[in-house]
Amino acid sequence: MKEFQVKTKESFFDNFLRRIARTFKRKPKFTNLNDGEDLRGRDLPKRCLLIGNHNGAGGAFSYRTFMKKRFMTWGAYQMLGNFKSRRQYLYHVLYRQKLGWNKVRAAIVSFLFGIMSKRFYKVAGIIPTYPDSRVRQTFKYSMQCLESDIPVFIFPENSNEGYKPQIEEFWSGFIHFSELYYRRHNEDLPIYTCYYQKKPKTIVIGKPMFLQELKKEHSEEEIMNIFKDYMNSLRDHVPNAKKAK
Known about the structure:
This protein is an alpha/beta fold.
């Protein structure tokens, strides 16, 4: 894996790929609960954390493709590795475990997307995440992003049993990183919660919350549940969401 670089600007090729993606994918409707701010997030602070859901495989793609704020995103380290690493992650984890595809479909798509995926992930600006002590590298790279005024987008939902519209559990990585940032910079990062709904295609940007404020009255587990419940509540701002499957 090459040395990590903060993505502070888009190349011509990056913009070209994004235009192609926007041609084939319908733009979601945006709802921003922060009064007076750009609907698609252009006015978000340069130093903030964003957390969101997947709702299938479309959430991460839609946030990155259609939001107006440049950011870098936590993503599986395997997808920045060699072809074998990418294909195995796509087949076993993404398509079989999380999306529940059958073996034939998963095998074909993981082979084809495995060939080209590394370039797409580079365009997306991925910060590799790890399930062990190497997570310190994730925190290090995330710190570099924020210190370069590039927000960081994190997907905290536990998706081991698949992506669900109603999120049941959060991982605590975003809380630990926010705490680390506070200790280093004495700054309580605003954490913006987002919600993606596939049908009807919608992105809701919620109001910010601040970890140090929440810690005054709540435990870590309670704070995770506060963020989880808030993310789920954003679905109420999606038109006809209750009718959509």
